[in-house]
Specification:
Elements: H1 20-24, E1 40-46, E2 52-58, H2 60-64, E3 68-73, H3 74-77, E4 82-83, E5 97-98, E6 105-106, E7 112-118, H4 121-129, E8 132-137, H5 144-148, E9 163-171, H6 175-181, E10 184-192, E11 204-210, E12 215-220, H7 225-236, E13 243-246, H8 262-274, E14 278-281, H9 284-289, E15 297-305, E16 311-321, H10 334-342, E17 352-359, H11 374-392, H12 396-401, E18 410-411, E19 417-418, H13 423-436, H14 439-448, E20 452-464, H15 468-472, E21 483-489, E22 495-499, H16 508-520, E23 527-531, H17 548-575, E24 582-584, E25 588-591, E26 598-600, H18 601-610, E27 624-629, E28 636-648, E29 655-665, H19 672-691, E30 722-727, H20 744-760, E31 770-771, H21 775-782
Parallel strand pairs: 1-14, 10-31, 12-13, 16-17, 22-23, 29-30
Antiparallel strand pairs: 1-7, 2-6, 2-8, 3-7, 4-5, 9-17, 10-15, 11-12, 11-14, 15-16, 18-19, 20-28, 21-22, 21-27, 24-25, 25-26, 28-29
């Protein structure tokens, strides 16, 4: 317990980021900044065909290249495979072993076949050019239609129909009759393009053997260091104690780095084999074409409505193209299972049927990317709402207003219980903000002038704070969820907090310190955060799924509270009063009955460490506390409404975003400025997916994007100023009251932009359901056609 006054509290205030002085002055330390004596450099020989058997790998000439120290194939390194598992029958899930280096078969262009180690990265590149790999090509599978075609070639022999996951999670009895009798039934066919998460810092690793500690030390930019340690120890056949994973500063992850990659393991194996440090840094070409990709999904959905616009039923078929392998530990099920479980979202859906499938193709494998399936299924739901509004001649906001959940807690047809949120309030506030800014009047004036301005909305929730119970529902054999924290005070009264989460840009050094400082009523300058080191904390699940503050922050707060209790107990023993008669106050413990009597933390720490003989027998020496936190229900739900205004330019087909409004509710915002940064960054990525980004493949399985000349991403010119309004519905299930804010911007943007484009197209009668929305697509929609040109 603390006696902090409201105006003293740090949680809820935009405290300046503590990371900035280091990072902005060039004192950050990233993986590529690490230089060690005798360090070698690795690069990977990668498959040049999308599908084929390996008939020969000849590295003879590679080893003769000046500066090349070694070259290894799978047979040389003899590593275990990376295999992600679900506890489901083979009829629902087919596991696929992903070898660290391809052995007999390659399944996508860019798959690592061999590793070349040289004195510098340029010599390693020279070695790659000398490699000779011979393939017997097999027919590649490059799209959903090919994968599911009868008698299609199999990407994996064990995966019939090229299907890795096929699950029908829900099927309300009598749903067909509901659709047969409904006054209004609308359909959508929504596709989202394949994307790259595109962190500023590509993947990389530095591995070395520490002979004194008898330990492999692996520096890598991962969101989940403990999972990398577990997989590395198993692939390398080492005790887990003999592997230490350290994450330095990291330049973005966005989900791409929350799975275990093959190259990190191969780099570690090379370092072990050679007895020298080895560094691997992914170049942008490999990052775009051969790293984990995301998003390519297809939703065929229909919704039934009554004549007043209230939804009666939802029926969906979800197909996710997961590429060549399941990612570890989430498996290929992460996308279709999330979509199937959560698609009803913020709406009261009384009847629901869904089939979720993950298919395998000869493309780079898929990993989670900011929002996972939610940008796609939210787009499908929001398109259904828009289509029903047009069919029933209802205002698009009004039809949402009639269907959003308003009574909490609410248990949906999907057996998920939603905690209190501000679904209706955020929708109303977003519409009011657009009207008060005059955009409805400007749209009407533009229409009269023959210009194409549209307004679009998306209303959604973001399930955050996934605990082990929520992950277990997917039947994952590796079940993330809990997090552990340690908070300790030294003899000077300074505090070090250690957490299992990992920052890759979310300001943990600031927000976690705010939580600790508030809990202990301590100057934030006295708090230091440690993260991203598997030797500092027993186990942690890292940072993904907006879990850091909701779960990791809760563990930190509970541990800090335990430490505060111990400080009070030591002071109470010295005064001979019960601990409940004391309180924490500005770096000291004081008596409630006499506030002038107080002991500073330094004085109490001196007793705890240096004069422990003075402690009562029931108080152990030292000032260290640990805590574990898990969310034991269905998680918690942040929510938001996005409103977008676009103009379509007839001559070029360009989509210009004129205004962007976001009303978000992530519970308690520990640092509102950080939350706004998360919103703006997420919205930028969502806009990019809506209008710009897509990786396509030709008939041979060759990816289209190998540089930024081929893969279009927006600049500051294309991203508008975003107006953000905050609502706060504190969460009852986390110790911080926070729900999580990492992914909401990305989730809502594609649907809002697509709906705005369709609103601008309303005079043409054309409706678009796919992203990205290209200028060519818009230009065709705006170009009048003669009857002869109409297909």
């Amino acid at each position: 317990m603390t006696s902090a006054k409201d105006d003293d509290r740090l949680v809820g205030r935009s405290v300046a980021r503590r990371e900035d002085p280091r990072l902005l002055s060039g004192r950050g330390r990233f993986v590529d900044d690490i230089e060690l004596p005798g360090m070698l450099h690795a690069q990977f020989v990668r498959s040049t065909v999308a599908h084929g058997t390996i008939t020969e790998i000849d590295l003879t000439r590679v080893r003769q290249v000046p500066g090349v120290v070694a070259a290894f194939t799978a047979a040389d390194l003899e590593l275990g495979d990376i295999t992600a598992q679900l506890g489901r029958p083979l009829s629902e899930f087919v596991p696929t072993a992903m070898p660290v280096l391809a052995r007999d078969r390659v399944r996508y262009v860019g798959e690592p076949v061999a590793v070349v180690v040289a004195r510098d990265p340029y010599l390693a590149e020279d070695g790659l050019e000398a490699a000779k790999v011979t393939y017997a090509p097999l027919p590649p599978i490059t799209c959903e239609e090919q994968a599911l075609a009868p008698d299609a070639p199999r990407v994996h022999a064990e995966a019939a129909g090229n299907t890795l996951v096929d699950v029908g999670l829900f099927a309300t009895e009598g749903i067909d009759e509901i659709f047969d009798q409904a006054p209004c039934v609308v359909h959508v066919d929504v596709r989202t393009g394949r994307q790259n998460a595109l962190p500023l810092e590509t993947r990389g690793a530095v591995a070395q053997w520490d002979a004194r500690e008898e330990q492999l030390v692996l520096h890598t930019c991962t969101q989940t260091p403990h999972q990398v340690r577990t997989v590395a120890s198993r692939c390398l056949r080492l005790d887990e104690r003999a592997v230490r994973v350290i994450v330095p500063d990291m330049g973005g992850g966005f989900g791409l780095k929350c799975v275990v990659g093959r190259e990190e393991i191969a780099t570690a194996a090379a370092a072990l084999r050679l007895g020298r440090p080895v560094k691997w840094i992914e170049d942008r070409k490999d990052a775009l074409s051969a790293s984990f990709l995301a998003r390519e999904q297809h939703y065929t959905a229909r919704a039934a409505f009554d004549s007043d616009g209230r939804i009666l039923g939802l029926d969906a078929d979800v197909v996710c193209d997961m590429g060549a392998y399941s990612c570890y530990p989430f498996t290929a099920g992460i996308e279709p299972l999330m979509a199937s479980a959560e698609m009803p979202g913020v709406y009261k859906v009384p009847a629901y049927r869904v089939r979720g499938r993950a298919i395998t193709t000869n493309k780079a494998p898929t990993a989670p990317y900011r929002g996972v399936s939610r940008p796609s299924y939210v787009m499908a739901m929001e398109r259904l709402m828009e289509r029903a509004a047009r069919e029933l001649r209802l205002d698009p906001v009004e039809i949402r207003r009639r269907n959003v959940i308003t009574d909490f807690p609410y248990t949906g047809v999907n057996n998920i219980t939603y905690d209190p949120g501000s679904y209706l309030e955020s929708l109303d506030l977003c519409e009011r903000a657009l009207r008060e800014a005059g955009w409805y009047d400007r749209r009407a004036a533009a229409t009269a002038e023959g210009r194409h301005i549209g307004i679009g909305y998306s209303c959604f929730s973001e399930r955050t704070g996934y605990g082990s119970a929520a992950f277990a529902q997917r039947k994952m054999e590796v079940v993330p969820g809990f997090d552990l924290a340690e908070v300790r005070m030294d003899t000077s009264g300074a505090v070090t907090a250690t957490t299992g989460t990992v920052s890759h840009g979310q300001s943990h050094e600031t927000t976690m310190a705010q939580i600790v400082a508030d809990t202990l009523h301590l100057d934030i300058a006295k708090v230091k955060l440690h993260q991203g080191d598997t030797d500092r904390i027993t186990y942690g699940w890292g940072t993904f799924a907006s879990r850091s503050i909701a779960v990791g922050g809760s563990a930190v707060r509970l541990a800090a509270a335990k430490l505060g209790d111990k400080l009070r107990a030591i002071a109470a023993a010295e005064w001979g009063v019960p601990p409940e008669d004391t309180e924490l106050d500005r770096g000291r413990v004081r008596r409630r009955d006499d506030p002038d009597v107080a002991l500073g933390y330094e004085r109490l720490a001196d007793t705890a460490y240096l004069k422990s003989h003075l402690l009562p027998k029931d108080i152990d020496p030292g000032l260290t506390a640990t805590a574990v936190f898990d969310v034991h229900n269905d998680g918690t739900f942040s929510n938001a409404t996005h409103g977008v205004v676009v103009e379509l330019h007839e001559g070029t087909g360009q989509v210009e975003i004129l205004a962007y409004f976001c009303v978000e509710d992530c519970g308690v915002a520990v640092n509102p400025q950080v939350v706004e940064g998360q919103c703006r960054g997420g919205i930028a990525q969502g806009i990019s997916g809506a209008l710009f980004e897509q990786i396509t493949y030709d008939a041979q399985g060759e990816p289209s994007a190998t540089s930024f000349m081929d893969y279009k991403v927006p600049t500051a010119h294309e991203i508008p100023e975003v107006v953000i309004h905050h609502l706060q519905t504190p969460c009852a299930f986390t110790a911080t009251g926070a729900k999580g804010a990492g992914e909401g911007g990305t989730i809502g943007a594609p649907a809002a932009v697509l709906n705005a484009v369709n609103d601008a197209l309303r005079p043409t009668g054309v409706e678009l359901d796919n992203t990205p929305i290209t200028p060519e697509t818009v230009h065709r929609a705006l170009t009048p056609r003669t009857p002869e040109q109409t297909p």
